[in-house]
Write a structure and sequence with these properties.
single chain, 11 strands, seven-stranded mixed sheet, about 5% helix, four-stranded antiparallel sheet, mainly beta
């Protein structure tokens, strides 16, 4: 079983940056795809980004392309979400999720929550105007 812990959330002004971390224990990320999701107040959870542990390929939601960057440190078994040019609309609880294999990347189903087996507890990001 994979245990996931997110960190790095906080309060930031619009235009600022934050880096979220997703650390895993129990297995390595090599054979997994790791997704970032977020849930804003009163809204459904949505996919933000995904990275393949196999080859490092990445995917992004249109709303964050060019502003967010997902990366992986295999040695630390940690995935990062660098968030730049933050906007109030980015305010949400951000979740890291893991699924075995990289099919979600290949088949472009990475935004589907049901594809993921393990979820973190979430970290809150608040962007003030």
């Amino acid at each position: 079983e994979v245990h996931i812990v997110e960190s790095g959330g906080g309060l930031v002004q619009a235009g600022g940056s934050l880096r979220l971390s997703c650390a895993a224990s129990g297995d390595t990320f090599d054979d997994y795809a790791i997704g970032w999701f977020r849930q804003a107040p009163g809204k459904e959870r949505e996919g933000v980004s995904c990275i393949s542990g196999h080859d490092g390929s990445t995917s992004y939601a249109d709303s964050v392309k060019g502003r967010f960057t997902v990366s992986m440190d295999n040695a630390k078994n940690t995935v990062y979400l660098q968030m730049n040019s933050l906007e109030p609309e980015d305010t949400a609880v951000y979740y890291c999720a893991v699924t075995f294999g990289t099919r979600v990347v290949v088949e472009d189903t990475w935004t589907e929550e049901d594809e993921y087996s393990y979820w973190g507890q979430g970290t809150r990001v608040t962007v003030s105007p």
